[in-house]
Amino acid sequence: MKYFVGSVILFLILAFYAYRYFLAGIHDPLNRDVRSDRKFKGWQLILFFAAGLVLRIVISVVNTKRGYNGFPTDISCFTAWPKLAFDEGISNFYVSEMYTDYPPGFVYIFWIQGAFVRLFNLKDYSAAFVVLIKLPSILSDVGIAYLVYRMTRDMKISQTAGLAMALMILMNPLVLIDGCVWGQTDSVFVLLLAVVFYLFCRKKYIPGYFIYAVSILVKPQALVFAPVVLFAYAGVILDAVKRKKKLKETILIHTGSGLGAIALIFILMLPFGVSTALKQYTDTLASYPYGSVNAYNFWGLMGKIWIRQEEPFLGVPMFVWGHIAIGLIVGASILFFVKCRKSEAFYFHVAAFIITAVFTLSVRMHERYIFPAAIFLLFAFIMRPRLETYIAFVATSVVSFFNCYHVLYYYDADNFNRDNPVIKTICVMEILVFALVVFIMIRYFRRVNDYMNEKNTVTGMIAKNREFFTRIRESRAGILHAEDTRRMKKKDYIIVGIIILVYSCVAFYHLGDMDAPSTEYSLVKEGAVTLDFGEVKNIRELWAYLGHEFNQNYIVSYSDDYSTWYALYTEEDHWYAGSVYNWNKTDVDVNARYLYIAPCSTTGGDCIIELVFKDGNGNVITPVNHEDYHNLFDEQDYAVDEDTYLNGTYFDEVHYTRHVHEMKNGLYCYENTHPQLGKEIMAIGTYIFGMNPFGWRFSGTVCGIIMIFAMYVFALKFFGDTKLAALTTVVFSTDFMHFVQSRIATIDVYAVMFIMLSYIFMYEYTRMNFYETPLKRSYRPLLVCGIFMALGISSKWIGVYSAAGLAFILLVQFYYRYREFRLSLSKIEDDPQKGSDFDVVKSFNRKLVATVAWCLVVFVFIPLVLYTLTYIPFNDGHPERDLITKMIEAQKLMFNYHTNITSTHSYSSEWYQWPVMVRPVLYVIESVTDATRRDIVLMGNPVIWWAGIPASLYMIYLWFNERDRKAGFLMIGYLAQYLPWILVTRYTFIYHYFASVPFVTVMCVYALKKIGEKHPKLNKSVYIYAVVAVLLFLMYLPILNGTEVSIEYINDFLKWSGDWAM
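The structure corresponding to this sequence follows.
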């Protein structure tokens, strides 16, 4: 998964720059300074395309070595058919009893492959055999890329631009997954079709007819493009009619050539038997009679995947709707032909339209049938550059890749769910791509013959592109001067104080009980207990509030007279006492005077803090000999009627509360899978308020409040505006995850708080410049940043991801300083009298070395020291180890634990599901009545998380297109927390997105600010956004803090998705 996601991200980045360099490569004297007209030598071009070839072979080999050859059904066929074709001969290919549904043209290729298999004695499914199977597609991929390059050269576009467009094929994730991963052959016939349309564009129709005939023999899907070939033929005849010259000769030549191409088809069918080959075609075209065959299109959206095409839709069978759609598509294509045929780009435009429309609206479509559209859209863009066409090419490539990827890796015939939200989402995306293609064709239809409009459009695109490169040059043309960030003033403290006060009241409400039993008793150490209730009593319920030991199992017997005993729980069928730091209820319902409780032989250690017995009326029954076991019965006043999150632990609190107790008492620390600082901060609350729910949740809640203050400080520095800082802070304080995750006794909140604080001071440093800022002053934010970075890592290892982001930002600052040094050096060479530039050149080495040395201290030495010191209270059960050894061994254990997790969890979710909140985590679900419930659900505020998706894309646009350093800072911070999870193979949860949320919040507000600047009418949108965030927070608050609420309210108003657990 991670490699394919990486390929999409890389493709999008390359697509952005390829578009820029293509426009720069269009002949325009004003663009010479972009250096887009570099000349490449022949060997360099060969090396470029060879690299694309090698990449595909490597991917194929690596996948084979990892046990994945491609789509199993297809690969098994492609393994058998070459041997069949060679061993039995081409003429016997279709008479074999083996399943054979490929057309005659490809059988010739199979014969050649079979010859190599026998010549080199290749083993089935070996790496060499699999590469041989995929080689036709691999070579065709490179062929398409070269044809793209060739077309750009024919149009007098620079070599750099041509190679940039070729790269869009070589690095296209759709092209990669279809051929060298899946093992399919779509590239072969698409290459042939591309050559056909390329020849048509160059008015070389006759060879185009014959190559088209070959493409039909290779793949019957080529018949979909028959209208395009007929348009070429009709266009030639109409031109001859219009010229009134050589009409008969033209008709004879082209009609004869067309008939000759048809004859070529039958000639190449002769070895198979014409009737046999034709039957093969008819059988193939009639196969898969379903509404959709894993094509995520209109019929996929309607839930018709693998549903027979005869089933009615709106009262009419689906296949009839398919025929109607094809009729309309052909009709629309004829209109385009009448209006647009004079345009060189017509053939690729109409071909892309036909296949996109057929894929979207017709039946029996496979997931790969839209593959040609992406290729033809790129050719259409090259011949008639339009931004919308390029966007359609990129969108088609990505969306079709999603479709193929989902089918390739997630399709399960036995457990197929056609209503899967992922499938529905991709269907909607594909339909939007189709709508974009229709829009392109309508605009093409209306404007194609308006020469001035066409010329001005391209000129305008070139001019905008020139502005882009101008911004790049300007960003490199001078020193980035130091800026003073906004400091907190009295009104800022008042504003943030009010926000914190309101938030604190909500956060501390229903946080947890402040009373809980505390004295401990161990039956393993003290021995079994025999309880005397004075007389026979009905014991309905047994409640146990447990201490720090897990898996506490007991034998229980009861008696009326102390002589005859009855087993209630035995060694085999034992009493499992329950979870730690929780009231655990067991229904027993026995009548007895005496009760005997002993630990099972498997119970290595136990810790019972309080035992409570209740009768049928819920009254507490205390043994008369309770003083014999004082610590078991000395806090009966704390007995509860129900176990809730208010009086006990929930979710992962069981691990951390136990660790806190063990650490405070010098015991062996059970929780050793995370660093120590977060648990040590958590312990502060228990020192103040005791070992109770309020105590162990107090520190986290306080840190959540500190995060609000930190957000205000950062937003004030970032925006330089009090109103925007206040609005950003209000929005952040309404995020559901921040609220819930700071109120649970886990360690995430401490790490995220320190991450936020470290980025505040790194941002402060990015506003400095050591050429202008005194060196010692620039050290201060680095020092504080390093300390907070160390504390973040010491709380949880996600701080390491954050540190990578900080390091990247720091390297960017050093790059800026180096670039300014080079610029000043060049100016001195031109004018040695420039004093300021001389100072820059003179001081660069000294200041850079000094800063790097300081960074080694604050980002390496100090974090190592602080991280090691946090292990002082940690007891690993090896008192002979010194502090450093203890720390190192703990890291080994932690690393092994996290890398070897293979289990699953019902609430786990993948990293790509987090921003859209596919699977929230249900921390607490407590039924109060049949109609009401107490829930605590971990999720994000939809108006923050969902808006964060387009906001992050907008930040990328600002960063790359407008060289916006602020947007770049936010994206680096965001991606540093988010991207590493792509590489994590163990199960993950939505709360792993927590560290990204502060950056998402600021991105949303910054996006609205920038939009408001460009569109003044939308200036107030940020206020509306904040109000919506607050309203949603209030709406969801009952299931964020565990307030009793009606189940009907949850289901009708809060559960927006069927997959949401609540």
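Residues 69 and 125 are 7 Å apart (CA to CA).
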